[in-house]
Amino acid sequence: MNFQLRVAVLVLGALWTASAQESASSQNIEVHATGRPVARVNDTVLTDGDLLREMFAIFPYAREHNGGFPKEMEPGIRDGALKMIIFEELVYQEALRRGMTVPDAKLQEAEAEFRAQFATPDLYQEFVHTEFHDSEEMVRQRVRRSLLIEELLQVDVEQKSTVSDAALKAYYDKNPARFEHAESFSFQTISILPPKTPDPDQLQEGRRRAEDALQQAKATNSYEEFGLLAEKLSDDDYRVTMGDHKLIERAKLDPAVVRALLALQPGQITGIIQIEQAFTMVRLNQHLPAGKMKFSDVKADLRTELESQKTNQLRAALDQTLRRKAKIEAL
């Protein structure tokens, strides 16, 4: 649980309230918070306001659609949000049952951090007025609640999710096939794309543009310089990622591209490669022969993956344990 993320959800809720009266598009479902109960967890009632804040955490782009959620996605978003607010309430109640507390200094620091998320004091006061009926004490209680949830999850989930170096190495040794890879290339492209059915003049103009682009590309001296040029000149979709295609297996590439790449050293650039009506130039970043990735090269990503899996397993187990001890009603 990330405290900054959870309090940010409150801000999203306030931003939604300010725009909820605007109309959503016909492809979106407009959702309003009315205070209607949606679930009861033991003696605590959760409302559609709690639900909506979590829906925005899951799908923040809804704010760009005037408070509307994509029609086909709304049921899944709603279901996921309901499960999350119930889980968090269960965790909060468990923290109280264990007698967990928040030191005053930590609470004050978190409150200051929360207020600092607002651009001006007036925006903060507007938020408190809209969401908490001008009650600073309600804000403080919500911040304290978030901190208690974070603390319990830190103890029961995060601290138990750590994967040791020995466990990582054992996984690597027991799953050798997973770390084998085919011959691959990492490269950037600049592509000039004439119309799909160009006439001779359009095809000639495309080649002229490609030759000019190649001259500029040959003058670049780094990944960044070539990438910025790709953003400026390239017509293909990879221009938004600086022309970067990352690692692609040899078998998935056009033979003409493979032949050109095999003649390069990293950092070098091909001439113009014409594939059907497209004119492309390629900068080789890496040629990776077939083989097995070294443990040192995969260790960091593998740790992230295995710890994420363990975190999800521990959270799911905690959710099941808390649900067995609680009375939960959908309203």
Q: Can you describe this structure?
A:
This protein has helices at residues 3-19, 48-58, 74-97, 104-115, 121-132, 136-158, 165-174, 200-218, 223-233, 255-262, 295-324; strands spanning 28-30, 37-41, 44-47, 68-70, 180-181, 184-192, 244-249, 273-275, 278-288, 291-292, 328-330. Helix 4 crosses helix 6. Helix content is 53%, strand content 15%. It has two domains: 3-162 and 309-330, Porin chaperone SurA, peptide-binding domain (Triger factor/SurA peptide-binding fold); 183-289, Chitinase A, domain 3 (Roll), CATH 3.10.50. The radius of gyration is 27 Å and the shape is elongated. The two termini are 26 Å apart. A hairpin with a 2-residue loop joins strand 8 and strand 9 (278-288).
Give me some keywords for this one.
alpha+beta, Triger factor/SurA peptide-binding fold, Chitinase A, domain 3, 2 domains, four-stranded antiparallel sheet, three-stranded antiparallel sheet
Helices and strands in order, then pairings?
Elements: H1 3-19, E1 28-30, E2 37-41, E3 44-47, H2 48-58, E4 68-70, H3 74-97, H4 104-115, H5 121-132, H6 136-158, H7 165-174, E5 180-181, E6 184-192, H8 200-218, H9 223-233, E7 244-249, H10 255-262, E8 273-275, E9 278-288, E10 291-292, H11 295-324, E11 328-330
Antiparallel strand pairs: 1-4, 2-3, 2-11, 5-10, 6-7, 6-9, 8-9
Helix pairs in contact: 1-2, 2-3, 3-6, 4-6, 6-11, 7-11
Enumerate the spans where pLDDT stays under 50 for 5 or more consecutive residues.
1-26
Q: What would CATH call the homologous superfamily of the largest domain?
A: Porin chaperone SurA, peptide-binding domain
Q: What average pLDDT do the residues reach?
A: 89
The CATH topology of the largest domain is: Triger factor/SurA peptide-binding fold
Distance between the termini: 26 Å
Which CATH first-tier class of the largest domain would you pick?
Mainly Alpha
Q: State the secondary-structure class.
A: alpha+beta
Q: What does the main sheet amount to? A: 4 strands, antiparallel
Strand content: 15-25%
